[in-house]
Amino acid sequence: MAFAHRPMVMSETGMVVSGHHRASEAGARMLRDGGNAMDSAVAAAAALAVAVPHMNGLGGDAIALHFNAGSGVVTAINGSGRAPSAATIEKYRDLGHRDIPTRGPLSMSVPGVVQAWEDCLKRWGTKTLAQCLAPAIELAEIGVPIDASQLAFFEGPVYGELAAEFPRLAGIFGAADTPRHLGDKMVQSQLARTLRLLSKEGSASFYEGAIADALHTDLEAAGSLISKSDLAAHDTLFTSPLKVSFRGRDVYTAPPNSQGIALSVLLGLDEIAEEQRDMTTPMKPGLDVSWYMQAKNIAFKYRDQYAADPARSRLPSDFLDRNSLARLARFEAATVTESQSGGGDTSTLVVVDADGNSVSWVQSLFEEFGSGVVSPQTGVILHNRLYLEQLNEDPNRGLLPGMRPFHTLCPALVVGKQGCEMTIATPGDHGQPQTLYQVLRHVLGDGVPIQDAIERPRLRHDVGEIVMVEDRAEKEWSVRLGNSGYSIKDVGSWSRLMGGVNAIHRLTDTVWAAGADPRRSCYAVSTGPM
Question: How far is 432 from 411, CA to CA, in rounded Å?
């Protein structure tokens, strides 16, 4: 067994892995207090919204998967919001825009994460929203100590530009040149008051009550197109996930408007390639990068064709059947025109409870601090997900009022004969399905332990001829990619561009193992036995 950078945390009674240790602790506390996987997930998600505010928050979206151990059913949770009813192509052109702005009030769609928290608790939880929000309120009031990752961000160029353009943001988190030190407390007093009101009045307050009134007033003053009726009309979708067979298990991903289809196709093409392999030739473990680039381009071609609002997606019901995947495998991908890349600043968490109920949860502001626009009365920062849509008549990306934008959020669950065998998620915009595929390939294809699999070198390709490769990768990768016409971009040894995987993998009938990515601030917390 290869040495892993971090030890592998194990548990028989449940565990949480997330993008911040305070969030993992909040989720684990909920499990210890008798809560189930969804109670834990919401508590961890709310804590993440406070602990890493530049990556996610109440003004963002969520997409998740839930496995019910009693019924064996996997449910996809779509907590993404729609484009405002006034967000027409003509409106943007009248305002002088040829493209939707990357930042600012015109880059927003309706935030969906708050409604998703409460709707999921009502459907599966045993705790109240108030109970699940308590750790987040405490963090917002007393402050979160700034860690090395946050210090680097606040001292970096992106925050410098944001603070200069959006002074209200700087009013909360300080000017770019504010002296900061490790351990300094990051207090969010107005957000704490909003969370307290939310815990008292529920998500209805956020979409139709006092919080909604304050949000609308502030956003309208900033120039947003989001109306009161847009907020009131928001709902969470509970749907069937996508499913593909991989190494004797079923891998579930989120359906459109998520890019989960890209991960599903990658895994399906790998399974077809394994079936067609000459079994007399020993299989070399690891990633065949030449094959991978062909498969990735095919997967992303169909992602860009189908990953749109469910009301406009035309994904055939048999798309992931073996025969359909075999047809895909026979054709090389056409040139892929990808959606605009973002910073990949998303937060993820995974949870398993003592009964085997499991959650893979992804929530995001899309880019660092999203739109940059703050609602002063609420302390809520709005995301900028809408800017992925286009001001044209494209059938998938062309802006339409009331449609959910394309989403890079890509949770995944692996289910086998024992029930859920793995819950896994990562940030990284277009890199999410690529990172998840590589980790799943190591674990389920090569039998690599989860922590080792997460720490192995990775590659990522967005668009064009450049492939990002960690410098710890075997030299053969660069040779084979070069022979395939690609250029290598060295991104260092442990690049955050490769994501930050959180995962929990079943080792035996009763023991789970966690994987936490050292590329980002990922932490696993076990609940016992105590």
Answer: 9
- 331 and 378 housed in the same domain: no
Same-domain pairing of 366 and 285: no
Residues 6+ apart with CB under 8 A from 368: 54, 55, 153, 158, 159, 162, 343, 345
**pLDDT value at residue 256:** 96
Listed in sequence order, the DSSP H helices in 80-178 are 89-94, 113-124, 129-142, 148-154, 157-165, 167-173
- Peptide bond between residue 529 and the one before it cis (omega within 30 degrees of 0): yes
Structure tokens at 323: 């025969």
The single residue of 75, 253, 346, 426 carrying the catalytic annotation is 346
Give me the helix-helix angle, 21-32 and 37-51, nearest 10°. 150
Tokens of 135: 């750790």
User: Do 295 and 442 share a domain, yes or no?
Assistant: yes
Contact 309, 256 (CB under 8 A): yes
Question: What's the whole-model pTM score?
Answer: 0.96
List the one residue out of 334, 324, 317 whose CA is nearest residue 272: 324
Residues 75 and 175 in one domain: yes
SS3 (DSSP) at 519: coil
How much is the CA Rg of the chain, to the nearest whole Å?
22
405 belongs to a structural domain: no
Closest CA to 496 of 248, 212, 152, 250: 152
Q: What digits encode the pLDDT tens for the residues 72-111?
A: 999 999 999 999 999 999 999 999 999 999 999 999 999 9
As a whole number of angstroms, the distance between CA 373 and CA 523 comes to 30
Q: Is 346 a catalytic residue?
A: yes
* Nearest of 271, 267, 262 to residue 305 by alpha carbon: 262
For the chain, what is the domain count?
A: 2
d(CA 329, CA 336): 16
* Residue 281 and residue 189 share a domain: no
Low-confidence residues in the chain, pLDDT < 70: 1-4, 278-284, 331-344, 529-530
Q: Which domain, by its residues, includes 446?
A: 240-342+410-519
Rounded Cα–Cα distance for residues 468 and 480 (Å): 14
In a domain, 3, yes or no: no
Give the model's pLDDT for residue 8.
Answer: 87
- DSSP codes, 83-94: PPTT--HHHHHH
**Which residue's structure tokens are 């809560």?**
35
> Which pLDDT score, from 0 to 100, does residue 109 have?
98
Residues 310 and 351 in one domain: no
Strand partners, 424: 412, 503
CATH, residue 320: 3.60.20.40
Q: Do 171 and 193 fall into the same domain?
A: yes
